[in-house]
Each structure stands twice: as structure tokens, then as C-alpha cells.
Amino acid sequence: GAFSRYAPFEGQEASMVGSAKALRDVDWIVPTYREYAVFLARGVPVRELLLRLVVRRGDPVKGHELTLYGSRRYRVLMPAGAVGIMTSVAVGLAWGIKLRGAGEVVLTYLGDGATSKGDFHEGLNMAGVLGVPAVFFCQNNRYAISLPVERQTASPTIAEKGAAYGIDWYRVDGNDVVAVKHVTSVLVERSRSEHTPFLVEALTYRLGPHTTVDNPRVYRSEDEVKRWRELDPLRRTRAYLMERGLWSEDEERAYIAQVEERLNAEIEQVLGEPEIEPEVILEDVYSRPTREVLRSMEELRRQLARLRVSERHQPFA
Ligand SMILES: Cc1ncc(C[n+]2csc(CCOP(=O)(O)OP(=O)(O)O)c2C)c(N)n1
Ligand SMILES: [Mg+2]
């Protein structure tokens, strides 16, 4: 109940971690609202993400755009909430990198639903024409909220849409972390040296709800979810490691206990941080506030003061 809203990624861990681990520190990530495992894999501190999710002072994005995350330090572009539009923004970023000769690569995340947006097609078209160092990583998790992918496109695969734009495309088992890491690493390095874009379709499944305010039972069967649970990437990774004697039940128990303890302590800490002042919403409109912004700020303060006075007189019963 502490988070306002959140888009869980259970089932997509292998796609997110495998792809993020294919990057070098200089590379850029263009995420959607769901890529929290990507941020962790990149090394963003848990505390920073928690401050973001509970919207407390210290939130790197200062309360703007609930649940979305961006960071200059970790080279994560702040996405827009509107689905799909970051595909073309990422092309601009990658083109800039090419013009500067910077040797960086842009890894752009998108969902199956985003491929129906014009921005996806415009972005891929420009990426092909300009020859930019960008890898488009589409997590086909079978749903865009309640809409199954079969109703999203009549194309047999999402990946092959790259062909229309002269972009090489690949499909990978998105629940196999080793396969995802391998494919993405090869393409990221080729993209870096050859300035060529690629499109990857990672076949995966969202095991949880779309967000914490969604009820997936109304649009898909328990049976379907059960079938995908058997392909849970965590289960598969565990089996793979145990078979090779690299992981054990004891180690796992100890590890989970340790992580839970640390996480609970961090959550308690961030919940103790002061809330963000509403005025902050106007702070970053321009690098230096204009007269209009200052006037709005004054007006907001007046309204807030009035609100606080009336709250005091009519306490919420
Ligand atoms: C332009 C636009 N239309 C609709 C929405 C509402 N919306 C939010 S997430 C989402 C589904 C996106 O599905 P997909 O691209 O497959 O990503 P996933 O949520 O599965 O990770 C929709 C329709 C939105 N945010 N922006
Ligand atoms: Mg989807």
C-alpha cells in the first residue's frame, strides 16, 4: 500500500537482466514503466528506486511522472508515459551519438503493444535510413494490458517487421537469461562498431498484473498462467545452476532471507523520509524559472496555505 502504482515484471526477469547485462556503462537505456529489473541490473541503488516509488524527498525525479524512472548518472532516459513514443526519441539519441562519434549504443525497451503505434514505425524507419547505433528490444509478453498479442498484429512475428525498414531482426527465448544475454551482447557490439540498428523480439510472459491496479483474471485463464509458470525464468535459471552444482537450496534460502531483511530495512527507511513539497512540481519547468513560473509558484503557495487552514478547521472525520 505504500506505492502509489507500480508495473510488476514477474516473468520477465530474464529478458530484462539478460539484455541490461549486455551493455557497457557508457551505453544508454531507454526504458518503459516496467523496466525496474533493468535498473537494478545496471547498478541503480535499491534506495533510489524505492524513493522514486514512494515519492519521498530524495526521489531523483522529484515526484514527477509517478512510477517512471530516469537518471543522467546511470544513463537511463526518463521515458514518457505514453506507450511507444520513446522509440523515435531513442533514434534521435542514437543519431547524436553517431554524429559525435561517441562509440555508445542505445538499448530501447518496448512492449508488443507499442509496435502498433506509428512512433514505432517512424522510429524504425529513421533508424534504418540513418544507420544508428540502436538496439530495439521488444518484450513480447503476450499482452498490452488486456489485449492479447494475436489481436495486436496479424503478422506472424513482431521481429520480422524490422525487414520493412531494412533492419536485421532476431527472436529469442525471453525466459532464457543466457540466450538473451548472448543475443543482445552480439547485437549491441555489432551496433557499436557498424552503426547498424537491430530489432530483437524476446518471447516472454507477464505472470503478474499489468499494474497494481489491474485484475488479469478478467481477461486470461488460470490455466494459461499455470502453463507459463512452468517456464518461469527464475525456475529455469535455478535448475540450470543447480544441475551444474553452482547453486543450492541452502544458498538460496540464505540469500532470500538476506535480501528480504535488507529490502525491509530500506523500505522502512525511505518511508521515514519527508514527503515532497507540492511546490517542487514547478521547479524544473525551465533551468531558470521564468516570471510566469514564479507567479504560478506564488499562486500555488497561496492555494496550499488556504487548503492547510481549511484542513485545520474541518478535520477529516
Ligand atoms: C499512447 C498510449 N495509449 C494507451 C496507453 C495506456 N496503456 C498503458 S500501458 C498499455 C499497454 C502497453 O502494452 P505493451 O506495449 O505490450 O507493454 P507491457 O505493458 O505489456 O509491458 C496501454 C495501452 C498509454 N499509456 N499510452
Ligand atoms: Mg505487452
Describe this structure in words.
By secondary structure, this protein is α/β, with parallel strands linked by helices. The protein has two domains: about 15-270, 3-Layer(aba) Sandwich (Rossmann fold); about 280-315. Helix content is about 45%, strand content about 10%. The protein has helices spanning about 15-20, 35-40, 45-55, 85-100, 120-130, 175-195, 220-230, 235-245, 250-270, 290-315, and strands spanning about 30, 105-110, 135-140, 145, 145-150, 170-175, 200-205. Strands 1-2-3-7-6 form a five-stranded parallel sheet, sandwiched between helices. A two-stranded antiparallel sheet has the order 4-5. About 30% of the residues are buried. The structure holds thiamine diphosphate and magnesium ion. The site of thiamine diphosphate has 15 residues, from strand 4. Magnesium ion binds near residues 111 and 143.
Number of strands: 7
Largest sheet: 5 strands, parallel
CATH topology of the largest domain: Rossmann fold
- CATH fourth-tier homologous superfamily of the largest domain: Thiamin diphosphate (ThDP)-binding fold, Pyr/PP domains
Question: How large a portion of the residues is in β-strands, by DSSP E?
Answer: 5-15%
Distance N terminus to C terminus? 21 Å
**Mean pLDDT value:** 95
Oligomer: single chain
Structural class: alpha/beta
| Spatial sequence of strands, sheet with the most strands | 1-2-3-7-6
CATH C-level name of the largest domain: Alpha Beta
Classify the helix fraction into a percent range.
Answer: 40-55%
Give the helix tally.
10
Bound molecules: thiamine diphosphate, magnesium ion
Rg over CA atoms: 22 Å
Shape: globular
